[in-house]
Structures are given as structure tokens and as C-alpha cells.
Amino acid sequence: MTNQNLTDSEMRDARFAALAEAPFVRAGSSAGRFGASVSALRDVLSQREMLGLLVRRDLKARYKDSALGFVWSLVRPLTQLVIYYVVIGRFLGAANGTPDFAVYVFTGLTVFTLFNEIVSGGTSSIVGNAGLIKKIYLPREIFPLASVGSALFNFLIQFTILVVFTIVIGKIPIHPGLVFLIPSFLLIVVMATAFGILLSALNVYLRDIQYLVEVGMMLLMWASPIVYPWSFVQKALGNGLLLDIYTDNPITLAVLGFQKAMWVSGEDLPSPEWLMPRILIAIVVGLVMLVGFQRVFARLQGNFAQEL
Amino acid sequence: MTTAMTSSTSASAVPAGVGPEIIVIDDVTKRFVVRKDNSLKERLVSFGRGRKHREDFWALKGVTAHIAAGTTVGLIGHNGSGKSTLLKVIGGILDPSSGTVSRRGRVAALLELGAGFHPDLTGRENVFLNASILGLSRQETEERFDDIVAFSGIAEFIDTQVKFYSSGMYVRLAFAVAVHTDPDILLVDEILAVGDEAFQRKCLDKIRSFQEQGRTIILVTHSSSQVTELCDWVILLDKGEVRYEGEPNAGVALLRENLEERRKAEGDHSDAVMGRGAILGTRVFPAGGAPGDPVVPGSDLVVEVDFEHYDGMDEWIAAIQIDNTAGQAVYGTNTKRVAVDLEPLRAPRTVRFLMKDVRFGTGQYFVNASLLDFASRHIADHPQAASFQVPYYEPAVGTLYAEPEIVDLGERAPVQAD
User: Fold this and answer.
1) Nearest Cα residue to A180 out of A103, A263, A104, A284
2) b/e map of B38-47 (b: 16 or more CB within 10 Å)?
3) Whether A136 contacts chain B with CB within 8 A
């Protein structure tokens, strides 16, 4: 510290001089003001160090006293993989005509788990940090964003396993389809963050939201081609409007994009037309939603401290 | 930031020695809506009759105040007067329903020590997290980490998870982090009464050096002595409105009056059996003088109190207590201690207390009179029933009078090493 050698009164004079120069700032959140989203973004960026600490806190605290620690975050998706592979793939025969069904399922699950964790974690983030929000002012967007951070960390582990898996079975995903990887990833993160922010605020006022999210997640998981191939849906719905509605679900688009990128054996199998433009449009829509939902969040957050 | 105001004008109007304006509270109103339904089902069921399930509660009504940098402001008021709400509005934790709070400089809010401590993380991890929440960068925290640990005095437990801490260790670490964050404005809510006596002293010392360094402190407290000791300005809130703003002693006295009124108002309805007595009058004067005469040290003090009980009491206690202006009791006695036998209280009676050779320090003192039953339950109280003045005495301050004699004994001889 540079001011360590100053006497108290010198510090006081320096402080007063600095304060007299400083502009007045309105206390509280920035709801309803021009450029609010921009200033909210700036607030969050200026706190990115703390964002990192909050993410680390969540991750560390989650498995602090368990012997296996982070291994547990892998047990759930791997168990799911085994169940879906054996039951859906083998017993119900979805694996017939779908080469490397295990890779197929695990790719879909990895994407969906990311979405699920961001949205579910985000939804409960404000209520879960009630103690902090009631006592200290921080840009509140930090809390749903911290859930995004810890979800991304888990995604990274799962994705690494997926890559290792493809290498082990000799289907290394280095092929033209890889261009779908980044857009699909962006799509899922943008969409999930938008909903995470919106639902975190709504959940403060109506705690039913977190239970609704649980149910919604189950529906969404089965509404995307994760454990069954897209061609089954095409067969059932035909090539009409219904199929387009099914396909244009942003999670479905992201899952299909990921499968294009990571699932080499599926290159020649049927997949929707115009997949890349659809994904790009969905990203733009997602960004618009993100801004809109942030505004809703900003409007609602003024009463967080008293509603919690 | 978008509504930054250029108000260099306000700074120039401030007298020397006092800093520029740091917080401007402008006509702040806060309304809470009290809802009685909280789940979707309840809300759907009561949808048609919406308004019936909500109630408005005005925690703050048109509060306006200007606070200059470097002052220590006490927010006082009884429970529910809105002082904690005001503190939260200043801290930006609650948004006002109308009006604005503008401020400048770095703010640290200590509304609860260790808010944001995670029980599963170690002390070290929590220090970094908490410091970051209070606005320090990682590098700044690293620079101050040793100071923080030294101040908390729990160095040997710093790598233990905080869930294994005693509550004392917890608050010590939390306070240590908070005071090392270099704030311009420190908001403090009822947290100075933590830890053991030695640590409390350390905290108060830290607060004082904060004052010396020109930091602005806003303090919510119920302790009148803390207000008169630490603050140089008070804002007295009553039912969300500013009742008084100014010098601390007067504010504390007003709060006391206010509390007394409330107590009386409540007492009228309840406690009818216990409260069937009254103190009819209290007089205080130096022996041989009249009420209002100054009480010089060394004189005898007389207090006469008239008691009455509507049903009659066979055994009773008459008691008095003398407080200084800060509300600290400096003297008390009663008929039970002195083992005086009182006749049954059937008709109004007067009791005379004579205190010999009193030596109070300079200032004003208040006499409180009480009528108690024999189990020491209060039948009737009359706080600040009378008062007396002790003349100004230049050589000393405090509640005790004693003539000081000071001698310079010269240079100290060097200590011989063994």
C-alpha cells in the first residue's frame, strides 16, 4: 500500500481531496435507465475476479468432504450413458442402424447436461445466495453467471472424456463436420444463460419455478434427439411443419450440431437441411433474448433483498 | 454512472475541517408490500381478490439528509423505526420506492459479519472471497493477508474450514477482513458487540482510527453510550420519518423520551395488575437548598419521591437511580438495600433519600424513581423524573469528582539489564 507511510491526517486530507473530485453515483441497481444493460455488463466485468472466486467456491464446496470428490460429477452422466445405451439402444433397438450408439448418446448427453446445469443452477442461484444478497450490494447477475461457470467446468471434464472415448474406439472427430462444434456450443451457452438469468429472478418471487424447471428439463431431454436418432422423428412426423418445429428447438439444434461434430460414424445418416444457418439464427435470437431477459432481471432485482 | 452529477458546488460550501458531502439522501421513501400468499397455488386461488392478500408498509417516509465526509453518523430509533432499512438503501441493497440516494467513494457494508462466508471453505479461502465481495482485488488482498490474519488473532486455524470455528473466531475473522478493505464509507449494523472484551476494544480502536483517517461511518445501534461516545451526528428515526437530526446527546435524550412515551402507551392497556401504582412526584436538591440549585461536590443530595398504590401494598420497595446524560447509571439505591422498614402503602407516601457527601463530575444528571414489589418487579417507574446540575470543573471530566494533582517526576532512570 502506498499510503502506509502517511499519517492519519494526511490520509484524511488526501481522501477528502479525492472525494471532492469524485462524481456522485446513484446507489442501488440501474433498472429502467438508458444504457442499463451496458452498465450492468460493465459492472459484472469489473467484478470478474469475484466471479471466478464464486465459481471456485461452488466447485470446491460441492465435493469438499467426499472421498472421491470430482469423480462424482462424472458418475451421473456415465450411469445415464450405460442405462440409455443398454435399455434404449439394445433392448428397444434404437442402436440398430445407428453406428457407435454409445458415442451418439454421450455426445447428446454432454450438451444437454450443460444446458441443464446452467439453467437449474441459475434458477436457484439467487435464492441460494440469499444471505449475501440481503447483506451486501453486488451486481446480482454475478450469481446466475457463477452457475454458468461451474457448469462449464463440468462440461469441460465431460467433453474431455468424450474426446478420449472417440480416440479409444478409433473414431477421432477430425473431419469437416467439426465446424459445427463452436456454433453449437455458443448456442447452448447463450440460450441457457438467458433462461438462467430470467428464471433466477422469477424464482425469488415464485419458488414454484425451481420445481417447474425440473419438470421442464425432463420434457426437454426427451424432446431432443439424444437417446434416439433424429431419423426416427423424421419417419414419425414426415417432412412437414411439425418436423421443422421439432428441429428448430434450440437444444435440438445444438445437440444435432454437436453430433455432426463429434460423431464421425453418423456422417452419412439423414440430418436436417440448413443446419448451420438454423444454428446461427438461433444464436442471434438467443442473444436478443439474453439482453431482454437481463432487462427483466434488472427490473426485478430491486426488490430481491426484501423478497428473500 | 449514467446519472453522475457534477456537484462541485456542494464541496465548496463545507466549512474547514469537515470533508465534502459524501452521501445525499433525497426524499427517500420505501414501501414494503406484505404478501400473505407465496406459492403459485395460493396466488391463483386468491387471484380474484388480489388486494386483500397484500398490505402496504411504509418503512421510510420522505427521508432527506446530507452527510459530510469524515463524520460518524448514528442512526437511532426503536425497533421498526426504519433505521436498518435506511442503511440498506444507502448501501444499495434495497432500492428506494421513490427518491434517490447519491454517494461517492468506496462503500463497505457490514450489515452482518461474515455474510458470504462459506462453511465448507477454509478461513484462508473465505478471506479472499469475502475481501473480493467487499471490493478488494486479489492482489490487494494478498498484500493485506498477513495483517488480516494478525488482526483476527486466529492464525493457527486459518487453514481450517470455517464450520469448525467457534462463533467468536468466525466474527473475528470477518471483522478483520472488513476493516482491511479501505472503504470511504463504512456502514455498520449492530455488530460492534462481538467477541470478547479485548477484541471489542480492538474493534473500537480500529473504528477510531477510521475516524481519524477521515472515513465516513454510518452506525445503526441501540446502545446510547456507543452513540454518544463514537458519533458526532445522529439521525433519529421514528416510524420511517426523521424526528431529529443533529448533536448526539440531544438525540439520545429525545429517543429516551420517545421510548418512554411508547412504553406508557403500551403499559396503559396491558399489565393492569402490576401497574396499579404511580409515582406522583420527584424532587431533587442539595441539602439546605431548593430544586434547581447546583449540586457542588461535597454537599449532601436529597431526593424526595411521592408513591401511591391504588390497591394498597403491605411490602414494597422504593428505589432511585441517577443517570448521566449518556444514559449510563452512575448511582442507585433502594429501601431494601439499606434495610429500611416501610409502612404499608395504603395512602400516598413520601420517601426521602439523603446521600451524603456526593462528588459527581461536571454535567447534568437525571433521577429515575421506581416503585417495586418485594420480588423486585416494577410496579411503577418514572424515568428522568428530576434532574440536577453539577457546576463546570475545569481540571477534570467524567462522572466522578476528584481534585487532580499532577507532578512531573523527571526523566526515567534507564532500566538495568540483568
Assistant:
1) A263
2) eeeeebeebe
3) yes
Closest Cα in chain B to A34: B2
Question: In this predicted model, what pLDDT tens digit does every residue of A87-122 receive, in sequence order?
Answer: 888 888 888 878 888 899 999 999 999 999 999 999
Q: Which CATH superfamily is domain B273-390 in?
A: abc- transporter (atp binding component) like domain (2.70.50.60)
| Residue A16 contacts B where some CB pair is shorter than 8 Å | yes
* Spans of all domains in chain A: 47-59+71-307
Could you give the CA distance from residue A283 to residue A289 in angstroms, rounded to a whole number? 10
Q: Return the pLDDT at B73.
A: 92
Chain B residue numbers touching A12 (CB-CB < 8 A):
19, 70, 212-214
* Predicted TM-score (pTM) of this structure: 0.74
Q: What is residue B95's predicted lDDT score, i.e. its pLDDT? A: 85
**Where in chain B are the domains?**
273-390
Integer Cα distance of B257 and B238 in angstroms: 12
Smallest Cβ–Cβ distance between B212 and the set A12, A49, A136 belongs to: A12
Q: Mapping DSSP to helix (H, G, I), strand (E, B) and coil, where does residue B184 land?
A: coil
Which backbone phi and psi does A259 adopt, to 5 degrees? -65, -40
pLDDT digits (tens, 9 = 90+) for B38-52: 666 666 666 555 555
Contact (CB<8Å) A136/B125 = no
**pLDDT interval class at B302 (50, 70, 90):** very high
The answer to whether residue A135 neighbours chain B at the CB level (below 8 Å) is yes
B45 interfaces chain A, CB cutoff of 8 Å: no
ipTM of the complex: 0.77
Percentage above 70 pLDDT, chain B:
85
Q: Does A268 touch chain B (CB under 8 A)?
A: no
Determine the Cα–Cα distance for residues B91 and B110; give it in Å rounded to an integer. 10
Beta-carbon separation of B132 and A65 below 8 A:
no
Mean pLDDT (chain A) is 86
Q: Is B88 on the interface with A (CB under 8 A)?
A: yes
Asked if residues A196 and A146 have their Cβ atoms less than 8 Å apart, the reply is: no
